[in-house]
Amino acid sequence: MNKILLTEVDLAARLFQFGILRHIESSEFGLYMTDLCYYAKNFDNSKNFDCLKEMVNNGVIKIIELNEPQMERSGKLYRRFYPKFLLKTVSAFVIATEGNFSLISEDELVRSVAIKDLGIPSYGKQWLVDLIINNIKDETIVANAGLLRLVI
Known about the structure:
This protein is α/β, with parallel strands linked by helices. It has a single domain, classed as Rossmann fold (3-Layer(aba) Sandwich), CATH 3.40.50.1010. It is built from nine helices and five strands; from the N terminus they run βαβααβααβαβααα. α2 (about 35-45) runs antiparallel to α5 and α4 crosses α5. The longest helix is centred in the middle third of the chain and has 14 residues, at about 70-80. The model has no long low-confidence stretch (mean pLDDT about 85).
């Protein structure tokens, strides 16, 4: 199973809103987010936060709560990379390194640091979209994969 850690929710929210995620084999991959990323979205008053809450309530995204040692490591990484990244971003670095996750971010700097400095497999939106399309079981959606990539 591919364990995918999201730092931003907008892509997952679009997939959820379009109903794409219900057509995949859920055992193929899991979507996760740290509690700091989740609550940051709440406080950001993101238009997608209601969708994010629904995704969490439906088990589409699982929230990982950081424990005290993970928070300490996040603080150290935050100081190391300040002012490049927010605490929520470095919390994802900590969880990704400990839990064998792939990190999804639209931010090229996040992906670059994750790969080069921390050895975390990191990808952009297209990788996740391709993974999802490759795991869709509905032939009609698969036949329209090119259009789906444009929409997402």
